[in-house]
Amino acid sequence: MLVFAAWHVALAEGQKASKRKRLVLPAAAAAAVKKAFPKASIEEVEREEVSLALYEVEIEQGDSEAEITVTSDGQIVEVEKEVAASALPKAVAMTLKKLAGGAKVEEIERVEVHAVLKLVKLAKVKVVYEAEFVRDGKEVEVRIGADGKLLATVIDDDEDDDDDDGEDGKDISLDQVPAAVKATILAHAGKNKIKELEVKTRRGRKVYEVEWEADGKETKIKVAFDGKLLAKKVKVDDD
């Protein structure tokens, strides 16, 4: 039996690195998405843990796709949609052209910000406990309050993770990544041969996903554009 052991490091701005989960979207969140995009079909749902639950919903409407960030109570936070350079406002196009300096622009996204999340300092520190275990062949992640109350349960389908790893990514070489990213990759991979290196754009930021094998174990990491380690996953053979 193959088991995934995962470790997560906090993202910049206090967000946790997300893994794609097979989730049921809360009714209020689903209603908000349906109201905003009545003719769209939901293709994928992800849950992000910040100080509240955020759901990333991928939708298709005709030939176009979009990604919506929505809270569990139905507040749409952001809507992201890829657009062509020809669709940019003149002022935006001029600024982008100046910044790119002749370089080929790989991707442009239009981001609608509907709500802003604010950090509020708590009068008393809140402590929660997170744990991961394998049950019935599936990885389960739970959050438990200091009083023993179960706060959240997410079941990770390993097959979904494997299928999603190569999605919407662009293969690149180690020499093509920023120096800070390269340093982080080498610090973790060492002299092991890198099997796969992809760059993806998540929420407007580039994320580098790297895979290699060491001591018979498959290792994957995610690195932010500034070299920060976002996530690490080791696939071990639990015979």
From TrEMBL:
Segments forming domain Putative beta-lactamase-inhibitor-like PepSY-like: 23-77, 170-230
Pfam families in the record: PepSY_like
InterPro entries, A to Z: PepSY-like
Protein name per Swiss-Prot or TrEMBL: Putative beta-lactamase-inhibitor-like PepSY-like domain-containing protein
Annotated source species: marine sediment metagenome
